[in-house]
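Co-fold these.
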Amino acid sequence: MPRAYWLMKSEPDVFSFADQQAAPGGVGPWEGVRNYQARNFMRAMKLGDLAIFYHSNATPPHAAGIVEIVREAYPDDTQYDPTSPYYDPRVPPAAPRWDRVDVRAVAPLTPVPLDAMRGNPALATLRILQKGNRLSVTPLTEDEFHEIARMGGAPPA
DNA sequence: GCCAACGTTGGC
DNA sequence: GCCAACGTTGGC
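Predicted complex below.
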């Protein structure tokens, strides 16, 4: 199975790519996904998959870096933590509903603004550019991933 | 701060 | 199972 590619959104005020890089080894859990479709995409992630780390609710919104999946989906403990903003009181103790993956910062990108992606015909099919898209985790084609990485000045793979 | 789009909830 | 109400996302 060849490696797959993803795009993961985070609000930089909450958790930025710089925060990711600052974590020990650049590794940290991707927590707080509370949407079934996004969760299912995370469950499909495999070790070594690569993802674009995208800053939503930023001015302007932009792709900020590249991360690698370093641990496949496992239960997101924050669903059980009443002090967490991601606490979900509906989830039974024996049946965790929400998962997280661990990701590692691979390389920062020169910020690639949403407008630039929208203006690039090579990215015409990009999920996050489609009307009404809100999913925080979406798949990318290999070509889409490499095009965004190239726009952000990442060295060719 | 606004609001379009969309997911979820819950009454029936 | 329908669907109205409600909450959230996220660009602008």
